[in-house]
Amino acid sequence: MDLKNKKILLVIGGGISAYKSLDLIRLLQRKSCSIKVILTKTGKKFVTSLSISSLSKNRVFEDTFGEKNNGKMDHISLSRWADVIVALPSTANFMSKLSRGSADDLATTVILASDKETFLVPAMNVRMWEHKATQRNLNKLYSYGYKFIGPIDGEMACGEYGKGKMSSPRQIVSYLEKYFKQKDYLKKKNIKATVTTGPTREYIDPVRYISNESSGKQGYEIALELSRLGIKTTLISGPTNINYSKEIKVKKVISGKQMLSEVKKNLPTDIAVCTAAVSDFTPLLKNKQKLKKKLNLSEIKLEKNPDILEFLGKNNRFKPKLLVGFSAETENLLKNSIEKMREKYCDIIIANDVSIKEIGFNSEFNEVIVIDRNGETQKIKKNSKKFVASIIAKKIVNSFLDIKKRLN
Questions:
Q1: CATH number for the segment(s) 189-407
Q2: For burial by CB atoms within 10 Å, which of 68, 170, 333, 403 has the most?
């Protein structure tokens, strides 16, 4: 049973669909889950604390500093207790509050204080769902890392029909089962991933170097998402300004040769994702002292840097089961990327047009095309790098599981 002994924290909000939370609690109880519930002020207009506590077999949390908390800070203890948080119904107003980072009640405070996955289950009128403000908030919440269950098409309480109807309790349970099944499987199998990210610095002398505009953010977000999906992930990073999460193991390097050396130390690996923008060339000799202008140097001799993606793709002894490369291009995006995928023996290539300043290098946003060996393409339109990473990570995991099935 994929939900057995899982700890689910439900946040019940103020919407007509709140009554469905009672059926959801019943279903989760049958799956042997542990359930705790936060009931918002507006949620109390639709369901009662007594009915919830009777079904969940737990006290209902309503106030940030209630009389029964015995000195505990509920917003911290609840967020640490849960395996996941599920907020339903997530109204347009609730989504707006979260998108602004509001923490004006126990529900929003717990969610902001949480280090666990939070699933939002939207429910609202179709026009409210389609409104530009709601869609802007949706994209912002995606960028913060929230996951969404629904909404679905259906008839609303108001009598209108369209997208905005809350997913049914059975659909919510099915979604959670799939989430935990995959995560538990990957953890149990001890799947290992190696992700490279950031630029490299190829020093000419003690103060000058060859590098590029890569911030390392996209690779970092992919590593973080893989880790949250249950994969044991190591991030090998060139020089960046990222404040790395403790959820992943990080190895810091400077040069391309150091990055290759660290990659080799981390072999064998099941999955390798090469997002790092390794400098193509490195000085043949690094001067020990700062070069002076008066020397009138006409040239600096360079040599090719090691190609880490090519090393992993062509080395049959250490080739990962799934190899993912990034193709940073300024022209002929698809053509050059597909050619690179074939030359480097990649299973997936992520095509990235770095000529557009609003996406790619040194930006908070990205827009990519995911290409697999079957020739299937998936365009991820401009969005936060966190959101783009979540889509790429799902593609990586699904592709890896498909390969495992074929091998078995």
A1: 3.40.50.10300
A2: 333
Residue type, 44: K
* Distance between CA atoms of residues 242 and 236, nearest Å: 13
Mean pLDDT along residues 348-353 = 95
Q: Which two tokens stand for residue 238?
A: 């060139």
Distances in Å between the Cα of 121 and the Cα atoms of 23, 111, 178, 221, 239 are 15, 14, 16, 24, 39
346 is a catalytic site residue: no
Per-residue b or e along 40-59, where b marks 16 or more CB atoms closer than 10 Å to that residue's CB:
bebbbebbeeeebeebbeee
Query: Which single residue is written with the structure tokens 């390798």?
Result: 272
Per CATH, which fold does 7-185 belong to?
A: Rossmann fold (3.40.50)
Residue 302, strand partner residues: 283
CA distance 234 to 188: 17
Residue 19 DSSP symbol:
G
Tokens of 356: 């557009």
Give residue limits of the domains in the chain.
7-185, 189-407
Structure tokens of 57? 């077999």
